[in-house]
């Protein structure tokens, strides 16, 4: 009888301890089901010279600045997405020779954007494949091209082959 009682007490203790340990995680999981809303996104790029970027973002891409300060410019891309240009030393990150971030712009007018940017002499890093190119097996389900902005960041333009 003592053995059965000890096992029963041990089982109850394990269940109680498990419940105490799992309780905070259960709250985390419940919280993720009703996450607070997110209204928009802003991708920030960092430059030594913001003024040198203006012809690309305002001229070629025809983006409208929504915030202009001496150290930052934010351009609206869509109602819910923007790109920000930040002067070195004023933002969160320093300027880096390595540009590991990429701005991707989704557009149905992929051929028109390619023609416009090539005509303007923008450096093309990846050419636009012909419309009949089915893409690589296992590759991204997009047709697009990649250019480099004047500060060295990559800007991708693409059209979904099938909208996910």
Please describe what this structure looks like:
By secondary structure, the protein is of the alpha/beta class. It has two domains: about 1-35; about 40-160, 2,3-Dihydroxybiphenyl 1,2-Dioxygenase, domain 1 (Roll). It has helices spanning about 1-35, 55-60, 110-120; strands at about 40-45, 65-70, 70-80, 80-85, 100-105, 125, 140-150, 155-160. The strands form two sheets. Strands 1-4-3-2 form a four-stranded mixed β-sheet, with no helix packed on it. A four-stranded mixed β-sheet has the order 5-8-7-6, with helices on one face. The longest helix is centred in the first third of the chain and has 32 residues, at about 1-35.
Name of the CATH architecture of the largest domain = Roll
Give the overall average pLDDT: 83
For the record, the count of structural domains works out to: 2
Q: What is the fold named in CATH at topology level of the largest domain? A: 2,3-Dihydroxybiphenyl 1,2-Dioxygenase, domain 1
| Spatial strand sequence of the major β-sheet | 1-4-3-2
Termini Cα gap: 62 Å
Q: What is the total tally of β strands?
A: 8
Q: What structural class do the secondary elements suggest?
A: alpha/beta
| Shape assignment | globular
pLDDT < 50 runs, ≥5 residues: 1-31
Give me the strand/helix succession.
HEHEEEEHEEE
Helix content bin: 25-40%
Name of the CATH homologous superfamily of the largest domain: 2,3-Dihydroxybiphenyl 1,2-Dioxygenase, domain 1
Please report which band the strand proportion falls in: under 5%, 5-15%, 15-25%, 25-35%, 35-45% or over 45%.
25-35%
Tally of helical runs: 3
